[in-house]
């Protein structure tokens, strides 16, 4: 059992370790280790196109995670409390649909809206809308799962003691579902910042994000610069996980 567990861990994490190690390799080719260097990180921070793409990705990911967390939390609460016809279908369908189909349908929608109303020209804003639509379902599932373990009598007791609906939500419901909200926000951020398929269809000609820029770079070869930016993305993800675990220790745990 231990052997199979270690094999699984190696399969999952060894490629990530290799990417980090070779980001310090003093060679333009990733075929063999030549020596230690940090010049690829210096070149990365001097690459204006890469920095612009990274800034766009970070801005979109932060905005999409915030909006999808707010909307997904409301959707998750509605799914738990109300039996609205087709609500589950509308909220959860974007999760089940393949990203290729989602990207194609969204680009057709944006093009039609732009032709009829003259708005929603393909660019960063359409990428943001696409990511929000894609991430809401993931946040809703996590929040709904968290609310299923909540004792509703606590909210009723708060209302009986004179709390308004908003006070009952802020003082009773929110502390209970906060770990789910944080976990959903982290999931939305991660899905948004490294999404390629949907972004590829909805970006248009003038917009560039980090996944699109990396894709254009690896058409020729996987350079150490790509390894460097990938390592920084992994570091950012780890930092977010540590922050979430400190802010809400139960955010990354299963429901009690």
TrEMBL record:
GO CC aspect terms: plasma membrane
UniProt record, GO biological process: transmembrane transport
Localization: Cell membrane
Superkingdom to which the source organism belongs: Bacteria
Keywords for this protein: Cell membrane, Membrane, Transmembrane, Transmembrane helix, Transport
Bilayer topology annotation: Multi-pass membrane protein
Listed transmembrane segments: 7-24, 58-79, 86-113, 119-143, 168-190, 196-214, 226-247
Record's keyword annotation contains Cell membrane: yes
Predominant cellular place of this UniProt entry's protein: membrane
Record-given protein name: ABC transporter permease
Lineage of producing organism: Bacteria, Pseudomonadati, Pseudomonadota, Betaproteobacteria, Neisseriales
């Amino acid at each position: 059992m231990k052997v199979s567990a270690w094999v699984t861990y190696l399969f999952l994490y060894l490629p990530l370790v290799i990417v980090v190690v070779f980001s310090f390799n003093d060679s333009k080719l990733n075929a063999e280790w030549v020596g230690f260097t940090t010049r690829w990180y210096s070149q990365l921070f001097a690459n204006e196109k890469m920095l612009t793409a990274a800034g766009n990705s970070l801005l979109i990911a932060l905005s999409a995670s915030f909006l999808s967390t707010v909307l997904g939390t409301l959707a998750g609460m509605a799914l738990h409390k109300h039996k609205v016809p087709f609500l589950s279908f509308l909220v959860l369908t974007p999760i089940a649909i393949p990203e290729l189909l989602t990207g194609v349908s969204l680009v057709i929608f944006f093009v039609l809206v732009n032709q009829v109303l003259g708005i929603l020209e393909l660019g960063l804003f359409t990428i943001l809308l696409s990511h929000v639509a894609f991430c809401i379902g993931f946040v809703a599932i996590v929040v709904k799962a968290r609310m299923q373990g909540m004792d509703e009598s606590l909210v009723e007791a708060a209302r009986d003691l004179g709390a308004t609906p908003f006070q009952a939500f802020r003082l009773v419901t929110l502390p209970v579902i906060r770990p789910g909200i944080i976990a959903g926000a982290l999931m939305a951020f991660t899905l948004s910042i490294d999404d390629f398929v949907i972004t590829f269809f909805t970006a248009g000609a003038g917009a560039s994000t980090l996944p699109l820029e990396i894709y254009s770079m690896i058409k020729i070869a996987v350079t150490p610069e790509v390894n460097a930016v990938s390592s920084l993305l992994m570091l950012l993800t780890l930092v977010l996980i540590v922050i979430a675990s400190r802010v809400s220790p139960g955010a990354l745990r299963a429901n009690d």
